[in-house]
Amino acid sequence: MTLPTFPRLAALLAAFLIASVHAFAADAKLPAKPNVLFIAIDDLRDWVGFLGYKQVKTPNLDRLAARGMVFAHNYCAAPVCNPSRTALMSGLRPSTTGVYNNGTDWRQVIPDVTTLPLHFRANGYYAAGAGKIYHDSYRRPSDWDDYLPAGASEADEGDTPGATKKKLKKQAEAAGSDAPNDGVGGIKFKPLNCDDKDMVDYVTVSYCLKQLAQPHDKPLFLACGIHKPHMPWDVPKKYYEMYPLEKIELPKVLENDLADVPPAGVAMAKPWGDHAAILKSGRWKDAVQGYLAAITFCDAMVGRLLDGFDKSAYRDNTIICLWSDHGWHLGEKEHWRKFALWEEATHSPFVMAVPGLTKPGSVCQRTTDYMSIYPTLCDLCGLPIPKHVQGASIRPLLENPAAPWEHPAQTTHGFQNHAVRTEQWRYIRYANGDEELYNEQTDPLEWTNLAKDEHYSSVKAELAKWMPAENKAEAGGKKGAKSDR
After folding, report:
1. For the segment 349-368, what is each residue's pLDDT rounded down to a tens digit?
2. From CA 206, how far away is CA 223, in angstroms rounded?
3. Strand, helix or coil at 304?
4. How far is C-alpha 133 from the chain's CA centre?
5. pLDDT in tens, 34-61
6. For the residues of 83-96, what is the DSSP string, one character each?
7. So which residues are the catalytic ones?
8. What is the pairing mode between strands 233-236 and 329-330?
9. Cβ distance 484 to 157 under 8 Å?
10. What is the maximum alpha-carbon separation in the chain?
11. Which of 23, 269, 297, 485 is at 20 to 30 A from 197, Cα to Cα?
């Protein structure tokens, strides 16, 4: 018998290894009807370790990211709680429903649309949850088999009726604080003299841990809505102590950054409001400290949830989907909060860990938005995708993060105000025709607006094709956005 030469042996070995890898990939299949752990976080921007932000402490979010795929350029459908969550949970963009602000009851606008939990229930899943999944003013318990009652979970501080504010005030007073005040104007923060277990998010996670600790006769869709880092950034003092004021680094900003921003953009920024108050107070670092503390408290709650999940019977057959409803400004563009169409308000963390599909520690650089969540979870769980759903499944990217992807991210804030984000560009067009254009590869902080440069006319024209064709008037004929401040 003639032995193979070395080159031939090497080729045979390489072929064997390739075949083995392909065989492994073929065997590593998604479980039939996998469970879903659906983790929603409120107001968490891209200040997390797994997106490269060095100042924050997010060990638990980072360990979740390490076990799945991070979508490094993911964007919200709207930079406001209610429209963002309505879009994600219904599968319909704000421009289709007319739900643009927090004062619009989505349940009255799209009463018959099959929402994400309803669709899973209709296809044999047991759907349970706690905390803030829908905007808390407009919960719909009928969407779920079981949901932690609203009395046990925290609502937005600006919601009506006034009982919400009283409830939050009572909670803060019960905890107590050594702080001389509760922040700067509408930017609310202070350390609390309490333990994690005294916080509402702790109660939310505890409910979800109980669901994970018990058997279910159906596959499980479990939603955990964590409220922090939504304001007020009132969390146990130990989280503030992790961020000494003298070590706080402020966001990178450009003096007179709004000089090349058109009037519609300046009106959204409102530099005369929160930012002017922060500058006057001299407490910019204090506010950043409060936000960081609230993020790390949130991270601790995610850690509790992951610890319980890893001890449960669901560990190996469950898709984990973690998202935040939108980003947050802390002085960039002389703006605070969300309510804008720039990177800071629209960019938010998104992680998916899919057994048998995602490679641990993988990162996708394609631009995506949250309209993909509804169809993707259906795709992964073997459910039909309802015809009304407007997003595209990102399963091809979960299989290969470098796969071709022709869908830019789209964000809407109010009637006919839209942003389109590709891997290279952000194009903003306001209802009055004002425009902004930023080259994200050379100008990631969006300091130079190129919209008036004729050299980029063709770029704007191409990006404009992705603007929503349908722009429904604001539902109920309301004007202006009622914030959850």
Report:
1. 999 999 999 999 999 999 99
2. 12
3. helix
4. 11
5. 999 999 999 999 999 999 999 999 999 9
6. HHHHHHHHS--HHH
7. 81, 135
8. unpaired
9. yes
10. 89
11. 485
